Amino acid sequence: MKIILALIFTFTTLTCLADQLQGTIIKVTDGDTVNILTSDNQTHKIRLSGIDAPEKSQAFGNKSKQALADDIDGKTVTVDFNKRDKYQRIVGKVIFNGKDVNLSQIKRGLAWHYKKYENEQDVEDRSIYANAEYQAQRDKVGLWSDAKPMPPWEFRKFKRSKLRSKW
After folding, report:
1. Torsion of Cα atoms, 121 then 127 then 131 then 132, to 10°
2. Which pairs count as long-range contacts for 146-150, CB under 8 Å and 24+ apart, including other chains?
3. Catalytic residue list
4. Is the distance from CB of 133 to CB of 92 less than 8 angstroms?
5. In the prediction, which pLDDT does 160 show?
6. Cα–Cα distance list, 94 to 26, 31, 106, 152, 163 (Å)
């Protein structure tokens, strides 16, 4: 009986770990957030997993958004996901023509590998994303061409502290 329950639990857990959406990209908000329209006319906001792109007001923010738009805006993509964030966005890997779009943003130096959430990635993706960031940094690609690029999580923290100091 214990074995059967363990198998049922394992199967249920595995089937809940990954879901998939397919649809057309109807909006690129920034370098790591898009909206997708599915065949049932549902719109979903997608936060690209494993990456954090520069904010729009940051250096390379607009370039990151434009590169993502050039890649997938208006295109049919697949999103593999297993969670929603605190804003109820689906957090997932966007695939277009078999290519990991999230990883492409890192390779072009237009996003960081978001190590704060790397434990949510599978081991292979975690390694591939970290290596891609290392190579972009080594080759001074994109944002890595700046002398001291500021990660978006630090930029957001800095902006919040500036706002607080005005009060």
Report:
1. -40
2. 146/59, 146/60, 149/59, 149/60, 150/58, 150/59
3. 47, 55, 89
4. no
5. 84
6. 14, 12, 13, 20, 34
Query: Tell me, what's the pLDDT at 5?
Result: 42
Q: What are phi and psi of 148, to 5 degrees?
A: -140, 80
Cα distance between residue 128 and residue 100, in whole Å: 11
108: left (phi over 0), alpha (psi -120 to 50) or beta: alpha
**Which residues, at least 6 apart from 87, have a Cβ–Cβ distance to it below 8 Å?**
45, 47
Residue with more model confidence, 140 or 17? 140
Predicted TM-score of the model (pTM): 0.86
- Tracing tokens 């109820």 back to the chain, one arrives at 88
Q: Averaged over 38-56, what is the pLDDT? A: 98
Decide yes or no: CATH 2.40.50.90 for domain 18-146.
yes
> Is residue 66's pLDDT more than 60?
yes
pLDDT value at residue 2: 52
The residues facing 86 across adjacent strands are none
62 — pLDDT class (breaks 50, 70, 90): very high
